[in-house]
Write a structure and sequence with these properties.
The structure holds 2 protein chains of 2 kinds.
Chain A: H1 3-15, H2 37-51, H3 62-65, H4 68-85
Chain B: H1 8-21, H2 26-32, H3 37-45, H4 64-81, H5 83-102, H6 105-117, E1 122-125, E2 141-145, E3 148-158, E4 166-173, E5 176-183, E6 189-193, E7 206-216, E8 220-221, H7 227-264, E9 266-267, E10 270-271, H8 276-304, H9 310-336, H10 346-357, H11 364-384
Parallel strand pairs in B: 1-4
Antiparallel strand pairs in B: 2-3, 3-7, 4-5, 5-8, 6-7, 9-10
């Protein structure tokens, strides 16, 4: 999937958590205070459902969830790995 | 999309099992503050522990949406029989779901088949003497020593602390909150039972003391920093879902007991079921129980589909159902009068058990904050669109 195709749903999902502002792709999500457990598990469920991937314990690195771009990169890696296995 | 009425045969089957194997023992469980092993064996034979676990590891499997709803109905049935037994199955699944979701392939292979069969019972150890709702502030420490972790600290009010074979334990590592898989026989781990609680007296609570408990590196579940937000959160969210359904069962049992009692009890020359103020209480109980069941059903449907809305709906279901259980049990005792206050009264036990439901798996006050936050998120999206 192209970068923009992957990033747009992530931007849209995250924007609901940011009530009055559009966030940049390189903005630190945790610095904005969105590291709480309700948000974290919502994000995991969203990524798994939207892209048909599985987030597992190996993916639990702050750098994978820190920005819109980082989340998009994680999704692309998971999608590439799935294609390689197919 | 499944409908609740599609599950009536399953619900009846589950209720029949609980009526035969659990309900007759509920008063004794409350009195003795202990769930006998025979009941645990019966639950295992009926596949109650397999529900919610992946099929590849001995779980029930099946369509995810139907499985989530069936799982909920199982907790409704258990909650109608004994809140304590529902609690045992609940915490087993809370710990197990965290393991199934975030365990490594080796951890899953080692633990999940035994958990799904009920051969091994699991507990979740988060709460501490100084830490309740603010789980990220845990004071139990996990020190890295070579390739091992060393746990030190105290956990308390741990359901099945007297009986579980393995615990998922939240501790504070250098990088942040982390969870660990800790077998009961770990050297340095000791237990003190807690008796005389207000309700859910068969939870078999204990305080767990970790005195320099050495755990191998592969006991780490997930990764440090993600212990609360992902690992414990997975267990807690399932716990809220299971408990919400358990409250529906508790409420339904109180309603059914009240319907039966008011038909058989006569005052002022007629069955009290003919009295309008009794009818008002029955009416409120019926609407309350049904509303809670529908919230639970919707949460289950969304959970099965991995819909991001599931977290909000689950939180709302638990919030409403636990408050409903208190209202309904309170009125059930009122309807039963002195009989409802008697030793071994099922509705008195329900009233005491219901009080616990608003405290565990997220207090009502903590859930109010979370639900309101979801509301503001949604409104912001509507305005932006």
């Amino acid at each position: 999937m192209s970068d923009q195709t992957v990033l747009e749903p992530i931007r849209s999902f995250l924007s609901r958590s940011f009530e009055s502002r559009q966030m940049r792709d390189d903005e630190d999500i945790f610095a904005l205070g969105f590291g709480n457990s309700l948000f974290a598990m919502q994000l995991v469920d969203f990524l798994e459902r939207e892209y048909g991937i599985e987030i597992d314990s190996e993916d639990l690195e702050l750098k994978n969830f820190q920005t819109v771009q980082a989340i998009g990169d994680l999704v692309n890696r998971k999608l590439s790995a799935r294609h390689a296995q197919a | 999309m499944p409908r609740l009425e599609d599950f009536s045969a399953v619900a009846q089957e589950l209720s029949a099992f609980v009526a035969a194997e659990v309900t007759p023992h509920a008063a004794a469980i409350d009195r003795e503050q202990c769930i006998p092993r025979e009941i645990v064996r019966a639950l295992a034979q009926a596949g109650m522990f397999a529900s919610g676990f992946p099929e590849a590891f001995g779980g029930r499997g099946g369509d995810a949406e139907e499985a989530a709803i069936r799982h909920g109905l199982m907790h409704e049935a258990l909650g109608a029989g004994s809140a304590s037994v529902q609690g045992l199955v609940n915490v087993h699944h809370m710990a197990g779901s965290a393991l199934a979701r975030w365990g490594t392939p080796a951890q899953k292979q080692r633990w999940l088949p035994a958990l799904a069969s009920g051969e091994v019972l699991a507990g979740l150890a988060i709460t501490e003497p100084n830490v309740g709702s603010d789980a990220a502030a845990v004071e139990t420490t996990a020190r890295v020593v070579g390739s091992d972790f060393v746990l030190s600290g105290t956990k308390t009010w741990i359901t099945c602390g007297q009986s579980a074979d393995v615990f998922v334990v939240l501790a504070r590592a250098e990088e942040g909150p982390a969870t660990f898989i800790v077998p009961r026989d770990t050297a340095g781990l000791s237990f003190e039972r807690i008796d005389g609680m207000l309700g859910c007296r068969g939870y078999m609570l204990a305080t767990l003391k970790f005195e320099e408990c050495v755990l191998p590196g592969d006991a780490l579940l997930g990764k440090p920093r993600f212990g609360v937000t992902h690992v414990a959160a997975t267990g807690l969210e399932w716990g809220r879902y299971n408990l919400a359904w358990g409250c529906v069962g508790l409420g339904r049992a109180c309603l059914e007991a009240s319907l039966d009692y008011t038909r058989s009890r006569s005052q002022f020359g007629s069955a009290i079921s003919e009295h309008q103020l009794i009818q008002r209480m029955i009416c409120r109980m019926m609407v309350d129980v049904e509303a809670a069941r529908l919230l639970c059903f919707r949460a289950g449907s969304l959970r099965g589909r991995k819909d991001p809305e599931a977290a909000k709906e689950t939180t709302m279901a638990k919030y409403f159902a636990s408050q409903m259980a208190n209202r309904v049990a309170y009125d059930a005792v009122q309807i039963h009068g002195a009989a409802g206050c008697a030793p071994d009264s099922a509705v008195a036990r329900a009233m005491r058990d219901a009080r616990i439901m608003e405290i565990i798996e997220g207090t009502s006050q903590v859930l109010e904050i979370a639900i309101a936050r979801y509301g503001y998120q949604e409104r912001a999206m509507q305005v932006r669109a």
